[in-house]
User: What shape does this take?
Amino acid sequence: MRLKPRPPTPSGTRRLARRHPAALLALFLCSTGGALAALALPAALGHTVDGLIGGGPVPWSGLLLCAVLTLAETGFDAGAAVLTTRTGAQLTAHLRTRTTTRVLAAEPRRALAVPTGDLTARLTARTADAATAPTTAAGAVAGVLLPLGAVTGLFLIDPWTAAAFLLGAPLLFALLRTFTRRTADAGADYQRAQSLIAHRLTEALDGAETIRAARTGAREYRRILEPLSALADHGRRTWAVYGRAAGQSALLLPLLMLLVLAVGGLRLHTGAIGVGDLVAASRYAALAVGIGSLTGALGALARSRAAARTLDPLLTLDPLPHKGLGPLPGGPGHLELRDVGVVQDGEPLLTGVRLTIPGGTSLAVVGRSGSGKSVFAAVAGRLLDPDTGTVLLDGVPLAAMDPALLRPEIAYAFARPALPGTTVEDTIALGPWTAGPEAVRDAARAARADGFVGLLPHGYATPLTDAPLSGGERQRLGLARAFAHPGRLLILDDALSGLDTVTEHHVRRALDERAGRSTRVIVAHRLSSAARADQVLWLEDGRVRGTGPHEELWTDPEYRAVFRTEAGEAQALPRARTEAGMQ
Assistant: This one.
């Protein structure tokens, strides 16, 4: 019975705001302080002007107050800018960490439902956009307080002057509403086009060798950049929205200012207000029509909301369920599959797989392309949960084991391993625990990687960016990483395909030395790999076609045909992959 998954985690502004409440409160206070200083300055300036033209002594206290308010406004604005930048960076780091943790904790099949390029864009650009919401909201108080306070100041000076400004207020509000809606739509479309380009670029980088071999680089270049025209259209649309809002405000705001000053001048002529009041009214009118900061805040909030919507599917991913169990202590790696089935998009990938692999033995998994070999490898180490059936390691169901306890017991190596880390040593040492320097070198020797690593400029300390690696060398580093983190189960998913015959022979000897200590599951394409295994699993269309020693299966001509077919498909694979990518 599976544990109930944790409730979904929202990506809303409130949850982010709770991460740094003190910083956001300080930002709010700075923004409010700056706005209040800006609102107090016109009144102080008007009062000082009246004192200067009244013929009395110089109002030094008024001049000092104006200077203090000016410095206060400048200081508060500077503090708000610093807090916005620093807090925004902290919230972005937190949101990226939280989203990445969710993705890594989920079943890979669910997490990778989002294309790799789009996933990268969401974890980088989208998290940065979404994380601006709390700081923008905290700082937006100035954008709201200034026009409201300015209108209030106009009413206090002279209601008729304020009424003149309010004649144009409905047009101003309509402009803000339209700007916000159009900015949100354009921003969402821009983000979608950006994600599509990132996805296609990631596909091309993954298949760079295939593209080079098929000489289809020009076609792939055009395919990647094809959404660029739509991206440009959405970008121009975004700037058109800004430009239209700026143009409309450039026409509306001076008219409002002119109307306010005209009414104020008439009221001055009749003696209803003084010169200082007119100066203050003109300043308040300028603050009331200065919607630049408000439109900027509204645009940022619209982009943040659009980005947050793209993160919701990642932040609501359920973690792998488990019962908190671990493998039996000292178990030999006995692996058992009971009626295992996997279905994807309505198509069966594995059906009714029953198999027992004694601890410490080796299993070669063979079959034509598409027969389910890699799916079997993923299920065997719980990179994928079966839709039906159960997988057990030393008698304990994988689905019941705590992933943190299970991962150190299973080592994986892949045909195209990812190589994270700064240096060659870092990437080999990376795993459930950090392998020490001696373990790294022993593992590299077992994977036959020590020779070419020694030729690099700085050996194991060579940065990966300065280490041009062939496909086979990358595979050997991936194998070395698996060897450096030995567990009771070692799974090689086509991890020997890029090795030459001599290198494969030495690696197979290193694998054989683990007999009795580690169970080895090897997705095999070469006859030699199947021949050396203790047992062979022959898959066909996701079903078990046969199991047993290689010598027994070899008597079946269809089994022998698997290796001839695999060789032919391996030669045709680059062209097939390229043509599929062009569609």
